[in-house]
Write a structure and sequence with these properties.
The complex is a heterodimer of chains A (111) and B (111).
Chain A lengths: L3 E4 L2 E4 L5 E7 L5 E8 L3 E10 L2 E4 L7 E2 L9 E3 L8 E8 L6 E2 L3 E5 L1
Parallel strand pairs in A: 2-11
Antiparallel strand pairs in A: 1-3, 3-8, 4-5, 4-9, 5-6, 7-8, 9-10, 9-11
Chain B lengths: L3 E3 L4 E4 L4 E7 L7 E6 L6 E6 L3 E5 L2 E6 L4 E6 L8 E9 L4 E2 L5 E6 L1
The chains are: A mainly beta (111), B mainly beta (111).
Amino acid sequence: EAQVTQNPRYLITVTGKKLTVTCSQNMNHEYMSWYRQDPGLGLRQIYYSMNVEVTDKGDVPEGYKVSRKEKRNFPLILESPSPNQTSLYFCASRRTTDTQYFGPGTRLTVL
Amino acid sequence: QKEVEQNSGPLSVPEGAIASLNCTYSDRGSQSFFWYRQYSGKSPELIMFIYSNGDKEDGRFTAQLNKASQYVSLLIRDSQPSDSATYLCAPTSGSARQLTFGSGTQLTVLP
């Protein structure tokens, strides 16, 4: 089954404790992205990657890191999480054509 | 700053009526336009996409695009309670054709 998977789905952590949210796709897509979604603000892009070892900032990259060492994986790293990073996070992937597929989401709470 | 504006909700329509969702965008270079549906707490799922001016129909859904007016809309005919969700408009922008999402319109279809 073609899909984008994220782990964990739910995470509660404390300020400053490094965490990684994994994202994997099995569709051999070139493009992958991370978004955060907050009430009233819609989906905002954090980072995106056009291929292995090629990443670029989206609209809200501060406080986040990403890497793309393999085509299928695109982890999101929060080196020192803060409460304002409490949000619902989505990973997404697509080919060079535009139809984008989303993962199930990760609900992160930073205390 | 690329902006995507959607008509403010929530929008309520009776079952069987036509729901009309509107979206304007600021980037004249946008080439592709996507409508996603998102149920509460779930990931966005693609409803329709449109590239060319005019109408595109798919079942009960019709997307309308007017690039000169920078306007795209989604009509849902014979609305059903299962159509109750938030609808996200997303034009592409930039050389990487990234999606920029509006904040969404919440639709409620009343039985």
